Hints:
Elements: E1 6-11, H1 13-24, E2 38-43, H2 57-60, E3 71-75, H3 86-104
Amino acid sequence: MEYQPRVVLIGHSYIRRLRDFMSQSQSTYANLGLREAAVECFGVGGASISANSCRRIDRVVDMCACRGADVAVLHIGENDYGRISPEAAAQLIHEYALSLIQRYSIR
């Protein structure tokens, strides 16, 4: 069997809903229709990047999900709109991405 890169999508309810959609449409959109990669979704409704949130993304998404992943796609920050400045949000997203790269060698 040929090696398939593992791609993880990490985020809030949009990613959770995407996971549900992918599982309900077994043939057409399972694995997002990709044959060259294995796609997994890890989404939690209300997930945030804010340090003051009990649903902070790095606390609610099991980091074990990232082990063995080749690529991570982040879809985060929308739940923080209006709570923190855009600059602070960008900095927190950057720090989170760096932590994934450093811990798990994710691209």
